[in-house]
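Researcher: I'm preparing a figure for a lab meeting and need a structural model of a single chain. I don't have an experimental structure, so a prediction will have to do for now. The sequence is pasted below. Please return the structure as tokens so I can convert it later.
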Amino acid sequence: MPKNSPPSSPVGVQGLTNFVALSVWEVAHRWHGMDPNTSDPKNLPLPVQDTLRALCKDLVEQAIPASNQMGDDFGTLSTGPRYDEWQSRATSAELHQGYEVAVADYTREHREAVADLEICVDKREFDRQKLDSVYVSIFALEKFCTDHYLPKPAFWFPGEGGAIVVPPRREQIDKQVCQGIARTLWDQDPTFTIKALTQHPAILRNGNGGLYSSKTLHAWLSEVDPRSIEDNTGRPRKPSQG
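Model: Understood. Here is the structure written out token by token.
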């Protein structure tokens, strides 16, 4: 049986208001403004290929659940009961069968749904019939975006498509890393301005700074800028004499 049910109020945009689940094939196409009905599986645009492979990878690894067409998510390892919880509720017959059997039964629908998707991930072969038969709910897609720090696609999240979803804890970690990188760069070259550091590859890539606005980065780096306030946005200070 499906493990989670969607709320009674559907979420979506004009044309999709009655849908809380779409096939992986349709999601990957609509995400990039492509028609899922007319594309050629052997000549897919690279953005559609990349999205299909990323979604399939997370489905195969049970990072997100597959669902039925009603949007009821199937059980995955991440949503199943922990051993101690299962043990406290299990019947004598279930205890005799063991926890692994219980987990296998809990995840069976998901595993059956995503069977053979590895070929999409590993060999870049896109079986339209298979990909159009595997469904993901709007809730699973939201988790996918959160896990990968992606903007939620506007076709299913009206008004939210431009915002990158970053969990609060992840943002705190990124802030600390960006500040640490900035301190190191200032130790190496005290003439760096904050504006220059907000555009520095080490901040943008190594510190995940590319996920945030320049205003946010400026605020973070201002907290650890070793220079005087008057120098923070002005010309670099002159080296001290003698």
